[in-house]
Design a protein that fits this description.
This protein is an alpha/beta fold. The protein is built from twelve helices and 13 strands. The protein is 36% helix and 16% strand. The chain has an eight-stranded parallel barrel, surrounded by seven helices. Strands 1-2 form a two-stranded antiparallel sheet. Helix 9 links the parallel strand 11 and strand 12. Helix 1 runs parallel beside helix 2 and helix 8 packs across helix 9. The chain is globular, with a radius of gyration of 18 Å. The chain binds flavin mononucleotide. Flavin mononucleotide (FMN) binds next to strand 4 and helix 11.
């Protein structure tokens, strides 16, 4: 039975183990969204510690989808040389390098995005009462977002990344479109489950058109809003299945409107959702959330509850987490 240290091959990739550095914004980009030495080192040293997969922090695909002034960007070709340096540094340490590409949607401000935040509807989302009122995206604006994801994915590949991950979690734009609480549209993008999934599937289709069928594409899916009236896990599973049908190679399970910490407490608070999604898809599933113990992470893989395990804050606090985990799990 495979464990945390077992290699994993899928979609043309081979990971040396199942330890994942999940995407974690580090607030170290240049004012125009460029890579800095600090960002390279932040990811490189965690790759060097032995992670199988490093998913680089969320990178905005469009200026209007920029979440913060210190966020990494993949919105212009000018970003490619810096991103190439980042991808090369991660890969030189033996990890697979993936870039998370994102549009913040309502989770930004006019000050950062240069225009009013864009959302499915002009409603404040339930867990961000103090945020700016978003503007409901028009159909041309939606088309613009879709195209921006495709171009960003092409830049990621040109920069040498092995994979891209679509950010569809944490109340960012895609997550809001999927949520019945945030999406009050009455056009083709709202109303039914199918319509609320439309933006996910259009973004994925555009990325596939731009990259072809062979380049690995992952999704970080907000699997449930954990909020009455919001997306539930059945909706999360259905969306995961649709995305796999549309060509996604891996599902990285996280939270929806409630964010990456969800409402759960304790270790592995998203494990039940990862298990549910694993039952609906035949691609690898990552679980992340409150996991810091190597034995527990190993157990999750051995018990088939997830295929890979993301270690976020524990790896932030200790860049050597993977090295220590590997040493502790190797037979003595
Ligand atoms: C400082 C920080 C930055 C984060 N940035 C991102 C990000 O860019 N994209 C994303 O999908 N999740 C982001 N997250 C969420 C983490 O990837 C992870 O899902 C979350 O921290 C829960 O896992 P943990 O309990 O192991 O930390 C961030 C988390 C932290 C603490």
């Amino acid at each position: 039975m495979a464990g945390l240290l077992s290699p994993l091959s899928f979609a043309g990739l081979t990971l040396r183990n199942r330890i994942v550095m999940p995407p974690m914004w580090s607030g170290q980009a240049t004012p125009d969204g460029g890579v800095t030495d600090a960002i390279v080192e932040y990811h490189r040293c965690r790759a060097a510690a032995g992670c199988g997969l490093v998913i680089v922090e969320h990178s905005f695909v469009h200026p209007r989808g920029r979440a913060s002034a210190t966020q990494l960007g993949v919105h212009t070709d000018a970003m490619i040389p810096g991103l190439s340096r980042l991808a090369a540094a991660i890969k030189a340490e033996g990890a697979v390098a993936c870039l998370q590409i994102s549009h913040a949607g309502p989770r930004t401000s006019t000050e950062v995005a240069g225009a009013r935040p864009l959302g499915p509807s002009a409603t404040r989302h339930v867990h961000n009462a103090g945020g700016e009122l978003p503007e409901a995206a028009t159909l041309p604006q939606i088309a613009d977002v879709v195209a921006a994801f495709g171009k960003a994915a092409v830049r990621a590949r040109a920069a040498g990344f092995d994979a891209v991950e679509l950010h569809a979690a944490h109340g960012f734009l895609l997550s809001q479109f999927l949520s019945p609480l945030a999406n009050a549209r009455d056009d083709a993008y709202g109303g039914s489950d199918e319509n609320r999934q439309r933006l996910h599937l259009e973004v994925l289709a555009e990325v596939r058109t731009c990259l072809g069928q062979d380049f690995p594409v992952f999704v970080r899916l907000g699997a449930t809003d954990e909020t009455p009236g919001g997306l539930d896990i059945a909706g999360g599973c259905a969306t995961a299945a649709e995305m796999v049908r549309g060509g996604v190679d891996l599902v990285d399970v996280s939270g929806g409107l409630q964010g990456s910490r969800g409402t759960g407490t304790g270790s592995g608070y998203f494990v039940p959702y990862a298990e549910a999604i694993k039952k609906c898809v035949r691609v690898p599933v990552i679980v992340t959330g409150g996991i810091s113990d190597a034995l527990m992470a190993d157990g999750l893989v051995r018990e088939g509850r997830a295929d890979l395990v993301g270690i976020g804050r524990a790896m932030l606090n200790d860049p050597d987490w993977a090295r220590k985990a590997i040493a502790s799990l190797l037979p003595r």
